[in-house]
Amino acid sequence: MPEACPVYRPRKPHLTPFYQCVQDHYETLEQVYPERFAKRYGFWRPFLKEVMVHYLSCGDLHEGFARIRCDACGTERALAFSCKERKFCPSCAQKRAVEFGEWLCGHVLRAVPHRHFVFSIPKILRRFFLHDRKLLVELSRCAWESLKAFLQAAVPEPRAVPAAVISTQTFGDDPNRFHPHLHVLCPDGCFYGQGQFRVAPQFSVKDLEKLFRVKVLAMLLRKRKITSELIRMLDGWRHSGFNVFAGERIQPSAKKSLENLAAYLIRATFSQKRMDYSPDDATVVYRSKDGKEKTYDALDWLAAMASHVPERGKQSIRYYGAYANAVRGKQRKLQEVEPIPTVLEPVISSEAFRRNWARLIRKVYEVSPLLCPRCNKEMRVVAVIDNPDVIRRILEHLGLWLANARPIPRAHSPPGLRPLPVDSYQDATSQLPVREEEDYSQVPPAHWDC
Fold first, then answer.
1. 449: exposed, middle or buried (C-beta count within 10 Å: 0-12, 13-18, 19+)?
2. What's the pLDDT at 11?
C-alpha cells in the first residue's frame, strides 16, 4: 500500500445537509404527501419510508460494523455498514457507480467500438411515466427497437445482432423535475457469423429520432394513455420535443472513458457538494452545474428526491441483444466467449476487473479504509458485528456509544399550511426541445462530487 495514500477517516453522515434534511422532515413528508405532493409526484409509495429510515442508519456504528485490525501494530478500528439504497443515498450511489462501471466493462462489454446515445421525450408526456412507472420499461424497449432497426439496416450481414445497455433515469441537472430519459451504451455496429463484428457507418440521428417518436406514441396510444388528437397536435409542432443525442465513437482502447461512461449510467440523483440545507427556515439551496442557485422548500426537495427512487425489485438497467442476460448466461455455460476477428484489442480477463470493497473506497475518495492510521500497514477485517448487545458493549468500551447517535429531529410549523408549489407541468405544452437540462456532449469525469 503506497504511503502517499491518505488514511481513511470515518465519515459522519449525520453532519451532511441531506441527512439533516431527511432526519428533520421524513415523517412529516409521509403525513402531508397525499394532499400536497401526490398530483405532482404521483401517489405515496409505502416503501419510501423504509428507504429513508434505512438511509438514516447508513454509516451509523450503532447499526452494526466490521472490526478491522492491523497485524503489525495491533490497532483496531470499527467501520460502519452502509445502507446501499438506490438513487437516495449519495455516498452509496457513488460507490455503486464505480463498482458498476468496472463490472460492466469486465463482464458485459466486448472489445468493439461503442457509442453513447440519449433518448428524451417531450414534457407533455412525462406525467404518464410518473404516474405509471411500468411505462418506463416500455420506453426502454422503444429505444432498443429503434436502435436495433437502424443498426441492422446499417450492417447488412446475415443474422446481424446488435446489443445495448440501457439505463432509465428520471432526473436531469435540476433534480426537482421528473425528467424520464434513457442513456444507452451500445456497440457501434452488429455481431454476426462466428463471433465477427462489423462497425456501422454513420447514420442519421434525426431519422432515428423520428422512429423513436413513432414507437413511443404508438405505445402510449396502445396503452390508452394518449389519444389520436394529441398525436395530431404533436405532429403540428415545429419541435416535437423528442430528442436523440449520439456521442462520438469510443474505441475499445479507451478503457477509462468506457468505464466512466458505464458508471454514469447509474450516477447519483444529485451532488451533496452542491446542496445546502437551512434547518431554521427549512429550505434547501441547490447549485446547478453552471453555478446558478435555486431555493426549495425542504419538503418539496425531499418529495422530489423520493420520486426518483426506483420500485423495489425493479431494474433501472436493461440489457438487450448480444448483451442480454440470456445470451451472456449461455456464453458462461459454454465457458467461452467468441473472439472478435477484427482489428481490435482483445477483451481483458474478467478477473482483472474484480475490485474489492477497500479498493473501491480508495478509487472514489482517494483514501484507503484498510490503511492503519498508526503504522500505515494493511489492516484486515476480523469480525462482522451485528448483534445489538455486542454492538453496545463494544461501543461503550470504546467510548462511542451514543457519541454520534442520530440527532433529535427539529420541530417545524405544519408544512401543510404553506402554499402549494406551482404545478411542475404548467409548461407541459412547450414546443421547445428538452436538451436544456443536460449536456451529453462530453464523456463524464471519473468521479462525481457527491
1. exposed
2. 60
